[in-house]
Amino acid sequence: xxxxxxxxxxxxxxxxxxxxxxxxxxxxxxxxxxxxxxxxxxxxxxxxxxxxxxxxxxxxxx
Length: 62
Hints:
mainly alpha; elongated; 2 helices
């Protein structure tokens, strides 16, 4: 049982980190391309929101 909980913890960590990195990088790229200053923040917010939603879908309904 402990192995399953540890695996779930790492999966959740991976979802959160990958969401932030992926969408944050897209926002940063848009900032550089369009010479704006808010797309990085918007990308980070979209990334963490999407990751939390995916975690809820995967682990919250069990």
